[in-house]
Amino acid sequence: MTTIDDVARAAGVSVSTVSYALSGKRPISASTRQRVERAVRELGYRPHAGARALASQRTSVLALMAPLRVDVNVGVIMQFVTGVVTRARDFEHDVLLLTQDDHAGIERVAAGSMVDAVIMMDVEAEDPRLPILRRQRQPAVLIGLPRDASGLSCVDLDFEAVARTAVDHLADLGHRRIALIGSPQAVLDRHTTYAQRMVRGFRSETERLGVEAVFEPCESSVAGAVDALDRVLARLPGVTGLVVHNEVALPAVLATLRERGIEVPRDVSVVAVCPEDVALGQVQALTAVSIPATRIGAVAVEMVMHRLDHGQEAETRLLAPELTARTTTAPAS
Amino acid sequence: MTTIDDVARAAGVSVSTVSYALSGKRPISASTRQRVERAVRELGYRPHAGARALASQRTSVLALMAPLRVDVNVGVIMQFVTGVVTRARDFEHDVLLLTQDDHAGIERVAAGSMVDAVIMMDVEAEDPRLPILRRQRQPAVLIGLPRDASGLSCVDLDFEAVARTAVDHLADLGHRRIALIGSPQAVLDRHTTYAQRMVRGFRSETERLGVEAVFEPCESSVAGAVDALDRVLARLPGVTGLVVHNEVALPAVLATLRERGIEVPRDVSVVAVCPEDVALGQVQALTAVSIPATRIGAVAVEMVMHRLDHGQEAETRLLAPELTARTTTAPAS
DNA sequence: CCCGATCGTCGAAGCGCTTCGATAACTTAG
DNA sequence: CTAAGTTATCGAAGCGCTTCGACGATCGGG
């Protein structure tokens, strides 16, 4: 291993000069800097991460706690993770991956000074991990919105606004009977707040506009989709607007409509809530409110880095939704 | 932060005694150990990871380089990752996540002594990252099988055997016209060896048995699936056995068969090659050779830990496939 | 021309931990 | 009863880096 001593010797300067030349924390003459840089290059020098962490109290590593269960949103999760890892690199940071339920892990990596901060996905209303997080000296940012976020930063898509946007789009097209096919009951029960916020937004906006509305949770399987659709059709005959917030069920819902002879968008308009690539990867390009998962991951990193580098206070940011009209919505006939 | 000094003081022993009591590397009397443990508990002591890494040359962190692109195998990738992270914890290790194409990342984390070893997914025949890997002092294990694996460990499912198993199963049932619907052309072109090994196994086994066979690559989309199926039907009229090695296309292939009035397994038998949960999550439970992604990830960790802890040499392990007959295969009529 | 800044560099003191002798107190074999 | 091991503990030397204070040299202002 080549160390900073080797570099100092090769460049004919002291160790501290090398350190300052590399970090830029004190002025160093151009000529010295160049000699140092040359030595670094020729020796292939890499600072030892542990030594650096020990001396500087900074690790250049972020912890990311992600739900690795193989369920519903694998694709979405992956996009979050990608967003986090990619943006972290822009800030010269790497990412340590923790699994969702490894509650001890957060203590281990934070208290053990392995990371500078923690990003936590899939936060529930009363998440048991929050107290642990608050106890650490490292800042944290949550992807999601717990009931009490005091002391912690949060980012998420503004799901109430998502629902509003979807409903408004359908209502503007003249639809007066609108249904929401949503997350699985289990997700609602877990009190993952995005599902609840979506329903709340849907309820209040349909009420405000005075349109008939029903909400049905939907299991993430073919059978679940068929079931949910049947329940919607039974509870709200003559429904012409459908909001679907469930990536897995999406293709099955579409297929089932077709099988039943219900044509989209002639008979029923469909607005999906899903990542862009899902909306575009279906048989028809879907009118959709996109879930900018990569973006959210990136924003989470930005927030945490601002807290680290500029002592920024904890804050909550809700991203505004964007609806793109494509081929699955049309005026009510 | 509480340090080992605090613990030593609280327990009334020296720093080194605390260290030995905690690591067990030298005998310590039961009474002393207990006093130390008590102090640790009461002070909530956590060793500083950086300091430990600096002194011991071990970080308790593994690097995992995973393809985070949102494509085909998101589910499979997730399972690999889960397998790695979970098994790593059994060995008291955490996982640093690198993206597939961050070639510099592997140098950064290895040369910078951030990790004890590297696990790399999705290896290609002539992977440009291998030379970098070989240059590092940390051991590496590849998930996949490059042309030249010298100095590096490898694990993977034995895809030639997978093809053989699937073909044999169909042949035993009397099928004499068998097609393989495989990976997208792009994957073949990337020289990801699993796809090639699958095709090679398929070709040699069908030849050996003297059954008629065609192979068609298949894009991972609904349209791609329909296309591939059409090509198969055109090139091998009267085909009765289908091996499908493409998770994304799977549902579309099944749906298209149904639409065409081709009933499974009455008219055509289908063997899938996919993770167990995919095989069970379809409309019919699929006869399938399962891809034990979680297991492979776990094995990768085991191999790397053996190299670290017991100086084990680099080796290659190919996992034997297992076929489970379910509802989509039947004797040829 | 001298004083106080400013600039560029150095030495040394840690950061918190592991590990290598060394030592002292006991055993045990001969 | 002594020499040679054991066993349990301690002290000190690093591991490789950052950062603080100091110092000589150079500069501009009065």
What is the residue-mean pLDDT of chain A, rounded to a whole number? 95
Number of strands of chain A: 12
Number of helices of chain A: 14
Largest sheet of chain A: 6 strands, parallel
Rg of chain A (C-alpha, Å): 25 Å
How much strand of chain A? 15-25%
For the terminal residues of chain A, how far apart are their CA atoms? Answer: 74 Å
Element string of chain A (H = helix, E = strand): HHHHEHEHEHEEHEHHEHEHEHEHEE
Please state the structural category of chain A.
alpha/beta
Taking pLDDT < 50 over at least 5 consecutive residues as the criterion, the unreliable ranges of chain A are none
- Helix content, binned percent of chain A: 40-55%
Q: Give the oligomeric state.
A: homodimer
Main interface by residue count: A-B, 50 and 50 residues
Strand order of the largest sheet of chain A: 2-1-3-4-5-11
